[in-house]
Amino acid sequence: MRIATPEQLPDLLEPRGRRPRIAYAIGALAVVGLTVLRLELADTIGGGLPFLFYVLAVMIASWLGGWIPGIVTTLLCALVAAKYFLDPVDAMFPLSSVDRWRTLIFVVVGVLVSVLVEALHRARERLEVRTRDLQAEAAERRQVEGRLRDLGHRKDEFLAVLAHELRNPLAPIVSAAAMLEARQGDDPVVAHAARLIDRNAVQMVRLIDDLLDVARIERGTFELQRAQVDPRHVIDAAIEHCRPAIDEKGQHLSVKVPPVPLTVAADAMRLVQGVTNLLGNAVSYTPAGGHIEVSAALDGADLVLTVRDDGQGIAPERLETIFTMFERGGASTGLGIGLALVKQIATMHGGTLHVSSEGANQGSTFAMRIPGAETGAPAHVPASSPAHAGNGESLRVLVVDDNVDLVDSLSTVLGFLGEEVRTAASGEEALARMQEWAPAVVLMDVGMPGMSGYEAASRARAQPWGREPVLVAMTGWGRDEDRARALAAGFDRHVVKPLDLESLRSLLSELRATRHA
SS3 for 189? Predict the structure, then answer.
């Protein structure tokens, strides 16, 4: 039992929230009232139970004022009961032994009741204090959570703006590389320069996309578009992304896929992204002339996509943290988000990502397991895009952007591809060109000053001459909400800058086929 300190004595004698003086008065009144009642009922209940009524007075006094008023009321009740309801024996011993025991038991019970009620008071007070503390903590936590949500929103907005601002200068760079590729002729230096520019620009775009995907995962807007996917096409697409880097380092790549048709219910784009990141990681950490193997295998109802290399390997202590966001493991390049993103992609598919390595310079193996695989299903083979989008009838293409370099480079590339091109630098100018020239395709930026691309598209769709063209939102904003906003404004397609030569050819071929259909 803790002994009260001098500083605690005032609170001990007159605790907060109670009125001992009022408790004394009410306790005394209760004793008087109960005594009168007991006397009135004396003929009915006789001389038995002299202290029974007085327990109520003790409870009232202790509840109103605490343990001290309760004990004082207990002693007062004992004196009153001894005077009116106990038979005296003689002057020296006014109470018989039985009455003395009755009185002692009543006093003990009164003290216990007073202490018990005081304990209830103290517990209630502690609970109230704790409740107030919890409410204050909850309010503070809500404020912190609000600030964190605000910071998270600002971070997402910053990443989106950063991606947009990085894509804007990348777009003319990629278009310039496409110009070089389209006009390279037999000059190997020009061809090498075009491939070099294009490869590094594509790598930067991939890093930007990974950053945005990380933000989508953190805020819960990363969604899968499931369909039946042929793993061979996934591997082929990943190899196509990484082939320039593999060839540059002279690495040996082998591919192993099942001889039987095989599909898996998955998001094709995300699977390609995952395998591309794994393959790119293997290329980065495998020396020139090293060996890399990409394979697909069926394990029960699971598809296992494996990337194995004989590169620098992974230290045992890093195996536990290698999938942690921004974990770079001593690498001099990269953001440290590629493997973490692959793990998230596997997890969202209901699968797993496992890594193994024998240690330094012993290579490593990454295995991504995706459930929902089926054998014997007809493998869907996507139609390949034509080698040149300009074959056949040319298209009237209007390029709209306030970035002069992008307009010049992209319109030049479109001219090389055999399309008829005109340009506009604003939303107002775009509407005038559409009305007077009737383009078949409009590639329009959405973030122009003055009239935005969204507003221009909406206004065009409201006019008879604006219902026929295929409107393509060509933008550096690549979030899901940006795509939805573009479609709601009247655009038919949403593409993210920069468009490389093959992507541009594929887009034009698809638009041409849609137009003829």
Answer: helix
Give every CB contact of residue 28 below 8 A, 6+ residues apart in sequence: 73, 76
Residues paired with 306 in a beta bridge: 295, 367
Nearest to 199 by CA among 168, 245, 235, 250: 245
The phi, psi pair for 431, rounded to 5°, reads -65, -40
Q: How many whole angstroms separate alpha carbon 233 and alpha carbon 142?
A: 48
Separation between Cα atoms, residue 373 and residue 260, nearest integer Å: 12
**What's the CA gap between 316 and 254, in Å, rounded?**
27
The 10s digit of each residue's pLDDT in 291-326 is 999 999 988 889 999 999 999 888 888 887 888 766
Residue at token pair 């040996």: 252
Closest CA to 113 of 161, 59, 165: 59
pLDDT at res. 219? 63
- The pLDDT tens digits of the residues spanning 10-44 come to 444 445 556 777 888 888 888 888 888 878 777 67
Separation of alpha carbons 411 and 175, rounded Å: 9
pTM for the complete prediction? 0.52
Residue 148 sits at the vertex; the CA angle it makes with 145 and 154, to the nearest 5 degrees, is: 145
Comparing CA positions, the residue from 129, 31, 130, 116 lying closest to residue 74 is 31
CA-closest candidate to residue 31, choices 17, 51, 8: 51
The answer to whether 262 touches 304, Cβ cutoff 8 Å, is no
* Closest by CA position to 64, among listed 125, 12, 124, 22: 22
| Distance (Å) of CA 483 to CA 124, 218, 466, 495, 498 | 57, 19, 20, 8, 16
- How far from 325 is each of 126, 155, 340, CA to CA, in Å? 44, 16, 5
Q: Is 491 within 8 Å of 471 (Cβ atoms)?
A: yes
Beta-sheet pairing, 352-356 with 364-371: antiparallel
CA gap 429, 407 in Å, rounded: 14
Note whether 353 and 368 are within 8 A (CB).
Answer: yes
